[in-house]
């Protein structure tokens, strides 16, 4: 029911945008849309410095500094651009503005602008660390979930063009297995709990990816899962995000200390608002995808801790 309400509200907003575009006409709306697109490009290009500013100046915790920073950069660029373009278009004759073709084209292009704005706002609803937001309703609605997926995919693509060890995007935080791959979460919490159903669902998604690639399924390993859960818990309690634990142990040290025997091992980490965002983010990262689709791995332990408004902390430990 709630998801249907979200769909209805989205359609209502788009209808209002179309009506607004019909009244204003194509020329003015197009000018504003060009400004909107340019502002969005500027915001994406400034993602990392904007996220850093939100983290440093406003003390917004990771991974939520990215959405706050990118929206702030977009709003500022949009304000500057609209002010300039309105000055350029004010001398166009009224007869052109009021023509039917100009109005109909304005309705269409304004509706597209509404889609983009709604998608950004819905993504913020999903990823913002604020209690009481209708995340589930958005993610279970047809239009809302579609918009959030497209924004996340576009932003991950842009962020992936910068090959840092820490992949910090609008809806996904992950890290490569390397000495420089460390990040501070800027928050600590003990308000989390294991998510066994999410772990089972993620195992199913991993094995589905492996079957698509013609590989055998990974067997669940309870010892590896205990190691993975312990690391997810430790990162949340101590406020860091790294393959190397706070006491200096690598994933391989943690596995050996737990009595895991292996010839080959690996680890994936992710922090995301939802399970599917975590999985898609890992699959869209070449390094993490390589672990998931490594034919030499035969077992996996998935440890997921649900930290509420902070999202899901995911550790995947592989062995073969």
What does this entry look like structurally?
The chain has 320 residues and is of the alpha+beta class. It has 2 domains: 2-158, no CATH class; 172-319, Pathogenesis-related Protein p14a (3-Layer(aba) Sandwich), CATH 3.40.33.10. 60% of the residues lie in helices and 12% in strands. It has helices spanning 2-24, 26-45, 47-57, 65-89, 94-97, 100-127, 135-140, 142-160, 196-212, 222-238, 251-257, 275-283, 286-292, and strands spanning 166-168, 173-175, 182-184, 193-194, 219-220, 240-242, 265-272, 299-306, 312-319. The strands form 2 sheets. Strands 1, 2, 4, 5, 7, 8 and 9 form a 7-stranded mixed β-sheet that branches. α2 packs antiparallel against α4. The longest helix is centred in the middle third of the chain and has 28 residues, at 100-127. Mean pLDDT is 81; it is low at 158-171.
């Amino acid at each position: 029911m709630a998801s249907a309400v979200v769909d209805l509200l989205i359609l209502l907003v788009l209808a209002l945008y179309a009506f607004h575009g019909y009244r204003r006409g194509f020329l003015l709306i197009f000018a504003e849309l060009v400004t909107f697109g340019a502002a969005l490009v500027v915001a994406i290009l400034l993602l990392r410095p904007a996220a850093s500013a939100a983290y440093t100046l406003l003390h917004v915790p990771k991974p939520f500094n990215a959405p706050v920073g990118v929206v702030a950069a977009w709003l500022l660029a949009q304000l500057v651009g609209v002010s300039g373009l309105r000055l350029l278009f004010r001398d166009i004759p009224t007869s052109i503005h009021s023509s039917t073709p100009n109005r109909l084209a304005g309705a269409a292009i304004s509706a597209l602008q509404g889609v983009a704005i709604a998608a950004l706002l819905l993504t913020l609803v999903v990823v913002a660390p604020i209690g009481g937001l209708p995340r589930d309703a958005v993610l279970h609605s047809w239009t809302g979930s579609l918009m959030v997926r497209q924004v996340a995919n576009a932003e991950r693509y842009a962020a992936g063009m910068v090959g840092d060890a820490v992949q910090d995007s609008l809806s996904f935080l992950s890290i490569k297995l390397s000495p420089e791959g460390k990040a501070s979460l800027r928050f600590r919490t003990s308000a989390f709990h294991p998510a066994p159903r999410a772990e089972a669902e993620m195992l199913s998604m991993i094995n589905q990816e492996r079957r698509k690639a013609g590989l055998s399924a990974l067997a669940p390993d309870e010892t590896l899962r205990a190691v993975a859960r312990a690391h997810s818990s430790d990162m949340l309690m101590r406020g860091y995000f790294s393959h190397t634990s706070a006491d200096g142990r690598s994933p391989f040290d943690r596995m050996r200390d737990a009595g895991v025997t292996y010839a080959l091992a690996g680890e994936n980490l992710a922090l995301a608002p939802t399970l599917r965002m975590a999985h898609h983010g890992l699959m869209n990262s070449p390094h993490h995808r390589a672990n998931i689709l490594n034919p030499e791995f035969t077992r996996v332990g998935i440890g997921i801790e649900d930290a509420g408004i902070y999202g899901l902390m995911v550790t995947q430990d592989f062995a073969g």
